[in-house]
Amino acid sequence: MAIRPPGRAVRATPDTRDGARRALAKAHHEPKLPRGKDFNGDSFPSLHYGWVAEHRAQRVAPRPTRVVQGKLGDCFFLAAFVAVAKTHPGLLESLYQDHGDGTYTVTFLGGGPKGTPIDVTVAGTFPKNADGDLVFARGHVAAVFEKAYAKLRGGYHVIDQGGFGSRALKTLTGKSAYNTTMKSVGVERLWRMVSKAVEENRPIITSTPVAKDLKRVTGDPLMEGLIDAHQYVVLDRYERAGQRYVKVYSTLSPADAKGPADAKRLREMTFEYWHSRFADFAIGGR
User: Fold this and answer.
1) How far is Cα of residue 134 from the mean position of the Cα atoms in its chain?
2) What is the pLDDT of residues 192-234, one digit of tens each?
3) CATH topology for 178-283?
4) Where do the DSSP E strands lie in 113-250?
5) CA 155 to CA 270: how far, in whole Å?
6) What pTM was estimated for this model as a whole?
7) How many Å apart are CA 5 and CA 105, to the nearest integer?
8) What's residue 27's pLDDT?
9) Angstrom distance (rounded) from CA 194 to CA 201
10) Rounded distance, CA 95 to CA 258, Å?
11) Which residues of the chain form CATH 3.90.70.10?
């Protein structure tokens, strides 16, 4: 989900770039839907696009608990979205435009050629199953951003294959993200890095290893309630009674994932536990 690299990019000529940009501006060009298996190993249901009434009272930069991933393997993007919503809500407001006719434009500050801004326009129609239920991101604005990102990358079927949270951060903000493994930094250096990032109000995301490695480091076949190969948001770090803690958040609801029964979306853990169980982290630019 989180750490599988995207497919190899195709070099674009100026003509193909112009054509792609025009397609991104047309709301009726719907992103391709995924087929085959979802991240649980189940077959995707028969999906179709359907209109969803907008909840206009919802803020563009939602609280974390308002963003639910659904059954698409794009935790890397939604984690980046939530991290930016927490640190730079005003930025997300500026990237989102409601045209009032059932269409929306999202500006990705680093999504164009060579990291330039690019606009993506989408209709207010979202993937539903035969029962009419939303199957991917839930939370209206998150669903709009997810659809726009899917359109930018070539379809929902593309982002379902996973990607890099650091790339998603750069696409959203236009600022390069610093990404490194837990093995390359000690606990003390990690504390200093994360503390500085929190003080500078920079978005932070982190991911777990693949299942076999997470089972090995936890010594638990249920992986201590963590989700393998999954991107989490780092919401905060703090000290209490002489112990250092970090608070992480998952956009994936247990109802959508065949994971540990005790998996929680919001978790507090000691800094040492985080360092020993997770694989890497990324800190967004200022």
Assistant:
1) 17
2) 999 999 999 999 999 999 999 999 999 999 999 999 999 999 9
3) Cathepsin B; Chain A (3.90.70)
4) 118-123, 125-128, 178-181, 204-207, 231-240, 243-249
5) 38
6) 0.89
7) 27
8) 84
9) 10
10) 34
11) 178-283
